[in-house]
Amino acid sequence: MVTTSATTAESTDAPRNELSVTQAQAVVLRMVPQLAVAQRYHDTLQLRQLHWRIGQANHTLQRYDAALRHYRQAARLSPSLSAEAAWSGWLLGRTLFSQGDTGKARQTYGSAFATFRQLRHLTGQGQVLEQMGELYGQTGHWPQAQTSYEQALSVWQLTNDQPHVAQALNRLGTAHLEQKHYSRALYYLRQSLNMARRHQDSTQISQTLNGMGRVYQTLNNQEVASSFFTQALQTLPATARPHTRAVVLLNLGVMSDSLGNHVAAAQYLQLALGPACQTGSKVLVSEVYGALVALHRRRGQSQAALEALVHYTELQDSVFAEQRSAQVAELQTRYEIEKKEKEIQLLLKGRQLQQANLRRQTLLRNLLTAGSLLLLLTVVVMYRAHRRQQVSNKLLQRKNAAIHRQKEELDRLNHTKDTLFSIISHDLRGPLSSLYSLLALMKLGRLPAERLASHSERLTRMLDGTLHLLDNLLNWSAAQLKGEGSARAERIRLDELADETVALFQGDAERKDIGLHNEMPEVCLARADVNMTRLILRNLLSNALKFTGSGGTVTLAARRQGQWWEITVQDTGVGIEPAHQNRLLGNGAHFTTLGTAREKGTGLGLRLCQEFVLRNGGELTFQSQPGAGSLFRFTLPALDEGSFAQAMPPAAAVASAAAE
């Protein structure tokens, strides 16, 4: 079928018109040197055009092998599946057809037409269809020729190419004439004649008139046929192709002979010999000599008839040989086609078997896939159920852990509560009872002044201890209730806190005849909770004084270690027994002993110090040797003087500078 949609832009890089013999000789002389130049510069476009033109020239000069060589070279220079490659195939098919290899010519035409159709190149399709129609006509396959011409006519009508439409109508009329469809032949020939006259195409007019003359000649209407042949000769331009001129003159000579005008017939036939020989068609030349043989016999010209018969016989032998070669080539092509068709059938059967196997394999694969999907779905369901069970187990474990933590916290709080109440009931009740008894004696007025002063001093010390105990107790309870992270870190001066704490305990030290020394640096900047730090220093100094006897010393010092301050409280007291050292900072029950002056304790001081040091990011450690004293040290984050002064408000900075 012909592609019915026109291409948007057909390539203009197409072969030019055919050449006369003179033009062909000139082309060969002029363009062969140009071909060498184009090859030197690798100009592909110019090379292809030159190969086309030189090939056409060799075709006109009947140098078919040279023409085929150039056309094949042009095809190699053309992109695959391009219009240029299709045009090269079209030219190659024409030369193969002229050589008599109709089988290969038909295959080449088919490939070129397929490419043109794929590219929607209508001009190329029309040209190939016309040549295929001519090939079918020359081999006697006129129904196929008619089909090709009808398709070519449809293409030319789509492109609105009127000259080619007229030519296709003329050839379609010839196909109907050969099939004895005379009325259809005249119908198409008249249409071709009218269109050729509208475009003043004298060559086409002459060919159409010649065709109409043949129709009437076949119908034995000699006078009308002669009239059409005469008009065809008169209309034929001087530039007409030799083949066209030879055919018109041959038909006119045969018609004149049949009408009895032997002189005119001889003239026309002699005139037909020249252009017939120029065409190189031995069939056409032999037809002219055959007509001359018949004419000379009727006129009684034996010698002329013999000479014409000799030429006719020689040409017939050549024509027979050519026809035989063409038939052999046709048979060979047909054999190859049948062989390929059988191979195709075998391949189709093999493909059908392969498809059947493929269908079975596909069915088996689908069944396996369905089974695998079902198995996978089961595994997924089981996996998800297992995951849900794992999630439930983890959730249960977290809840159990939370319950366990809450239980531990509750136990800790209960223990704190018990400790708190035991301390309140034991350590706070004694001093309060003593105070109550003293107040009762003072109320009765029976207490002498000396004893009142002694009891007041003792009661004052007891109340100081009770206040210190109450302070520790409240801080420890608050720390237990708030939990971790309650420290409020700020910039502090450890030296000022040390001075404050030493001044607080100076009286107690003098009363026990203990040397209390403050060896802190003049400026000791740290980052910690000021209240917690104050409580740590108080508890450590209180414990050191408590367990140091008369004549001993207690020293408070600090030193810088990188980003930390290490604060130490060292005494020369009784020390701590090794058996008690592990219990001192442990997590067990509260541990306490009496001081050197029988001072009581609660066991909360060191526990509170350890907790507050940890909350400020430091660490509390100690070293002790029984009879030699103890050394407690703790660390706090250090600050530089510049960062401390930069963070102070302006008023505080001025006051600090004035104090120094």
Q: Can you give a write-up of this model?
A:
By secondary structure, this protein is of the alpha+beta class. It has four domains: 93 residues, Serine Threonine Protein Phosphatase 5, Tetratricopeptide repeat (Alpha Horseshoe), CATH 1.25.40; 96 residues, Serine Threonine Protein Phosphatase 5, Tetratricopeptide repeat (Alpha Horseshoe); 112 residues; 174 residues, Histidine kinase-like ATPase, C-terminal domain (Heat Shock Protein 90, 2-Layer Sandwich), CATH 3.30.565. 73% of the residues lie in helices and 7% in strands. It has a five-stranded mixed sheet. Strands 1-3 form a two-stranded antiparallel ribbon. The chain is rod-shaped. The N terminus and C terminus are likely disordered.
Give me the secondary-structure category: alpha+beta
CATH topology type of the largest domain:
Heat Shock Protein 90
Q: Could you give the order of the helices and strands?
A: HHHHHHHHHHHHHHHHEHEEHEEHHEEHH
CATH superfamily of the largest domain: Histidine kinase-like ATPase, C-terminal domain
InterPro entries: HATPase_C_sf (IPR036890), HATPase_dom (IPR003594), His_kinase_dom (IPR005467), HisK_dim/P_dom (IPR003661), HisK_dim/P_sf (IPR036097), Sensor_HK_Regulatory (IPR050736), Sig_transdc_His_kin-like_C (IPR004358), TPR-like_helical_dom_sf (IPR011990)
Enzyme class: transferase
GO molecular function: phosphorelay sensor kinase activity
TPR repeats: 48-81, 166-199, 206-239
